[in-house]
Amino acid sequence: MLTSLRHLFRYRALISSLVARELKARYRGSVLGFFWSFVNPLLLLLVYTFVFTIVLPGVHPPELEPFALFLFCGILPWTWFSSSLLEASNVLIAGGNLIRKVLFPAEVLPIVTVLAGLVHFCLGLPILAAFLVYYGVPIVAGDLLWFPVVVAVQLVLTLGLALLLSALAVHFRDIRDLLANLLTLWFFATPIIYALSQAPAPVRRFLNLNPFTHLVVSYQEVLFQRGSFAEWPRLILLAGAALVVCAFGYFVFDRLRDTLAEEV
């Protein structure tokens, strides 16, 4: 496994080129091209603003105003997370021609999927930042220093799950359909469309078992909520757990590596 990890570092140029190819392929033939990476989150934020300002005003606590921005702080990382896992569950099957090549490192494909999602996440951040400035939401500089840490923890966690799911989905094709339903449940079990403090105490204990809860709360505290960043102890624990998940995901992938070409 350690040998495979060392080899993976040598493939960084291949990973970069595949990420660029993936991003170009996504918008190939479209008129706006990469501009859609900015248009999509902008339209999403405008829709949320319209719904929660005009259609459903006053359905959330005043401290969450503007609610569309609070919601967007959770939706943006969730979109990266869920889309990466869904695409990773099918990426080895779709890339079967590459997998059958003896010298091609199969783990590159789920990694490329996650990194491409990270690029889209980063392209959505200027839209969020512009609206935070527009609405005058104060940002504490000390808290903002935690932002790259939160992104790094999500990246490691997502990579581990993507590697695990991509390898298992080759052998169990039902995983993609199961995952789509699980992600729906996972979304509502994460405080994205509501604040964690709004949940009843028994439910809150259940929500705290969800690792993505602490990522979303961290994003909300760093980008939206006023005051000090109080989520950092749980974030540090989650970072350790994410490293374990990533190591386990790569271990399972490495053990199943020799069977992938036969199954795709």
Topology:
Blueprint: H1 2-10, H2 12-26, H3 36-55, H4 67-94, H5 96-99, H6 108-134, H7 141-144, H8 147-171, H9 175-188, H10 201-207, H11 211-223, H12 232-263
Helix pairs in contact: 2-6, 3-4, 3-6, 4-6, 4-8, 4-9, 4-11, 6-8, 8-11, 8-12, 11-12
Structural account:
The chain has 264 residues and is an all-alpha fold. It has one domain (2-263). Helix content is 75%, strand content 0%. The chain is built from 12 helices and no strands. The chain has helices at residues 2-10, 12-26, 36-55, 67-94, 96-99, 108-134, 141-144, 147-171, 175-188, 201-207, 211-223, 232-263. Helix 2 crosses helix 6 and helix 4 (67-94) packs antiparallel against helix 6. The longest helix is centred in the C-terminal third of the chain and has 32 residues, at 232-263. It starts with a helix and ends with a helix. The relative contact order is 0.14.
Query: Largest sheet, if any?
Result: none
Total domain count: 1
Q: What is the 3D form?
A: globular
SSE pattern: HHHHHHHHHHHH
Structural class of the secondary structure composition? Answer: mainly alpha
**Gyration radius from CA atoms, angstroms:** 19 Å
Summed over residues and divided by their number, the pLDDT gives a mean of: 84
The number of helical runs is 12
User: What is the strand tally?
Assistant: 0
- Determine the fraction of residues in helical runs and give it as a percent range: over 70%
Pick out the low-confidence regions.
Answer: none
End-to-end CA span: 22 Å
Strand content: under 5%
Can you summarize this structure?
The chain is built from 12 helices and no strands. The chain is mainly alpha-helical and 264 residues long. Helix 3 packs across helix 4, helix 4 runs parallel beside helix 8 and helix 6 runs antiparallel to helix 8 (147-171).
